[in-house]
Design brief:
With about 375 residues, the chain is an alpha/beta fold. Helix content is about 40%, strand content about 15%. It has a seven-stranded mixed sheet with strand order 2-8-7-6-5-3-4, with helices on both faces. The chain has a four-stranded antiparallel sheet with strand order 9-10-13-12. It has a two-stranded parallel sheet with strand order 1-11. Bound molecules: 4'-deoxy-4'-aminopyridoxal-5'-phosphate. One of its GO terms (molecular function) is transaminase activity.
């Protein structure tokens, strides 16, 4: 079997596994003052420093959460003011899209969804327009798309939003640990990440809140006051230790992995284009994550293609949306027809993927597409 669904979740790195198991062997609540508590607090501190190092921010600017869904909710709900405009892109993950829609449910005129072009690049003209005319609270645009890997050039967005007095949030879940991201240079106010996309455990994430960012203090969870009051609840010490270890490993190998994984993507795409007539790479002209290929096999439903290659774990659209009857909102926003959106397979890969895996996936895909096309042709006769 070949695992090419890193955007749904990446494998656990051995460094993370080790840190998690070690933390599990030591009882201790990071808030307790005795030696066991202090041991737990030290693991949390180390994890926080390791994540901060990957992002080049201060450890105190990170709030640990249960994942990027919670981090996105915390960011948007903390920033939202009922009478100002919230700006997002049309291709956001549902954790942002649905949160923004629920916050503006009774005032849909206060939500602006920036469209994207055929390559998935966000159109900034509507942002310029609202910045000039309306009062904004927050602009939230993802740094890398989970379905296509298309990267956003955040700098012009930050400039426009800050000039208009708005805060900038980015859902960087798919970028962190995969492509360098330097928070000393990228002046976003808030950033969400999730550990399980870079080799940490599922169920742990973080929200970066830039020191000095003026946002209303509005936690989602109130209670014992952990995480400086931003997120109450006993800290997930093993999860945070594993997240830190994964962040450190990702940082250590980042530059070489960008090259190596990028070469794998080139191989996958050139082979598919050569061997599967008519296939199209989505977002081909945009800057993209090294480890994601979204490919449309026109006339060939992706669910049938995936079913015909059970040894390859790839996905149809995003994991969160698959199984649901609705086509990908991301691909539709890029102008694909419903049929083409339904005929799209996402391969996502990373640190543990080999050239052999890619070769295997190409061979399996070529056979699967031929099989499905032949079956459809036979059925049509
Ligand atoms: N944002 C993006 C862009 C994602 O890809 C995901 C994971 N599918 C999430 C948010 C949600 O992350 P989590 O699973 O940690 O809640």
């Amino acid at each position: 079997p070949v695992y090419l669904d890193y955007n749904a979740t990446a494998p656990l790195r051995s460094e993370a596994h080790e840190a998690i198991m070690e933390a599990f062997q030591h009882a201790g609540n990071a808030s307790s003052l005795h030696h066991a508590g202090q041991d737990a607090a030290a693991r949390v501190d180390r994890g926080r420093r390791q994540v901060a190092s990957l992002l080049n921010c201060a450890p105190g600017e990170l709030i640990f959460t249960s994942g990027a869904t919670e981090a996105n909710n915390l960011a948007l709900r903390a920033c939202h003011t009922p009478d100002t405009v919230l700006v997002i892109s049309a291709v956001e993950h549902p954790a942002v899209l649905e949160t923004a829609r629920s916050l503006t449910a009774d005032r849909p005129d206060l939500l602006v969804e920036l469209p994207v072009d055929a390559d998935g690049i966000v159109d900034l003209d509507p942002l310029r327009f609202v910045c000039a005319r309306r009062q904004l609270s927050v602009v939230s645009v993802m740094s890398a798309n989970n379905e296509t890997g298309v990267l956003t050039d955040l700098k012009p967005i930050i400039k426009l939003a800050h000039e208009a007095g708005a805060l900038v949030h980015t859902d960087a879940t798919q970028q962190v640990g995969r492509v360098p991201l330097d928070l000393a240079e990228l002046e976003v106010d808030l950033l969400s990440l999730s550990a399980h996309k870079f080799g940490g455990p599922q169920g742990v994430g973080a929200l970066f809140i830039r020191r000095g960012a003026s946002l209303p203090y509005r936690p989602l969870l109130t209670g014992g006051g952990q995480e400086r009051g931003w997120r109450a609840g006993t800290l997930n010490v093993p999860g945070i230790a594993g997240t830190g270890a994964a962040a450190q490993a990702a940082q250590h190998h980042l530059a070489e992995e960008v090259q190596r994984v990028g070469a794998l993507r080139m191989l996958l795409e050139s082979e598919l284009k050569l061997r599967v007539p008519g296939c199209r790479i989505n977002g081909a002209r945009a800057q993209r994550l090294p480890g994601v290929t979204s490919v449309t096999f026109p006339g060939t439903p992706a669910d049938a293609v995936l079913a015909a290659m059970p040894e390859v774990a790839a996905s149809q659209g995003s994991a969160c949306a698959s199984g649901a009857p609705t086509p990908s909102h991301v691909l539709l926003a890029m102008g694909l027809s419903r049929d083409d959106a339904d005929a799209t397979v996402r391969y996502s890969f990373g640190f543990a993927t080999t050239k052999h895996d890619i070769g295997h996936a190409v061979d399996a895909t070529v056979r699967a597409v031929e099989h499905v096309r032949a079956a459809l042709a036979a059925g049509a006769e």
